[in-house]
Design goal:
The structure is a homodimer. Chain A is mostly helical. Chain A is built from 9 helices and no strands. In chain A, about 75% of the residues lie in helices and about 0% in strands. Chains A, B: This is TetR family transcriptional regulator.
Chain lengths: ~180, ~180
DNA sequence: ACAAAACTTGAGGGCACCCTCGACTTAACG
DNA sequence: CGTTAAGTCGAGGGTGCCCTCAAGTTTTGT
């Protein structure tokens, strides 16, 4: 869309940038629920200005995460390039959750429903596309539990979100056990 | 302990009971974070009375959950009675999470740190004792992944808590995959 | 039946977060 | 420059939850 009405005034553009930077940092550090006031403070901007640019929290989310979720595509491509279907899937999961473990906000995004940030939902769907292919390949190769589906991956993602949150040192181990259970 | 100072006045004893009932119900339905006001309302008692009997949320937790956690002992005993070490462990996990899935408050209790409810912590430790024995048995029998430990069970429990919360229909399936991954 | 002790009540103060809006400031354009 | 539309500011009102305490009520023991 980019309905480029009138362009932003210089100071406004600057503030918008500062807000995005602050929100990006704070989401990553503290998750999606940081108080709006904190974002404004870190951006050195008043709370009123914050609401002028981003009337709802989801406006922040929608402005920040689609970009970040593009990394999903990258790890998806990487996995698709791997010839061994099992290695491809296992590697994908490892990369996916490594990414999730480094950004608390991303962790939240992948866990929650975000009905007001359709761009984010779309980006997730795109990511899921790759995952679906990887699963199909592994199924065809007969290396993956025959009843596995993309829905199981959603469940796993939420479980991993929790594990990452309260034992960031353990997620690889937990994942490796689960992945063992996935073999045909 | 039971430092039976003077016994409670009749009306006070009645109110205490009503509060416990209300809290038990609401914790199970909504989790440990229900507003205190809701508990008071359901108990048909004023908020002041609530605070007289249970000055902190953890006083409720400490009064309610040790009993409930006694069920852990029961399923522990049941599992210990099972001759096959693998079946014993797998059955234990199934029973444990079935229990957890029926009580949102219990789910919270098993997920959180509760430094102010030592009775609850103690009850959990007792439960963990059984689990430890089941794990040792399975290890000795060589049917369980050699590096498995009780710490992994704590991680699993938090993961299951999450799965139970947002996909109550899927936890058995998720668990069964994980358990597959546990085999030696 | 009465007084003292025990208990109950709910208005209200505190806090953290949400968000709005009218008064002020400043960039942009002639 | 001067005008004005665009943008900024932050005090303050709203909400939901926490918890307290002075005034009123009920139980208990005599």
């Amino acid at each position: 869309m980019v309905t480029a009405s009138r362009p932003l005034r210089a100071d406004a553009a600057r503030n918008r940038e500062k807000l995005l930077t602050a929100a990006t940092e704070l989401f990553a550090e503290r998750g999606l629920d940081v108080p709006m006031e904190h974002i404004a403070r870190r951006a050195e901007v008043s709370i009123g200005t914050l609401y002028k640019h981003f009337p709802t929290r989801d406006d922040f989310v929608a402005s920040i995460f689609p970009q970040r979720l593009a990394a999903l595509e990258v790890i998806g491509e990487k996995a698709l390039a791997e010839p061994d279907p099992w290695q491809a899937l296992a590697g994908y999961l490892e990369d996916l959750y490594a990414m999730q473990s480094e950004d608390r906000g991303l962790n939240d995004v992948l866990t929650r429903e975000l009905p007001n940030a359709p761009q984010v939902v779309a980006a997730c769907h795109r990511g899921a596309g790759h995952a679906g292919i990887l699963i199909d390949r592994a199924l065809e190769a007969g290396v993956l539990r025959a009843d596995y589906s993309i829905a199981d991956l959603a469940t796993l993602t939420r479980a991993m979100a929790q594990v990452i949150r309260d034992s960031p040192g353990e997620w690889r181990r937990f994942l490796s056990i689960y992945v063992e259970g996935l073999r045909a």
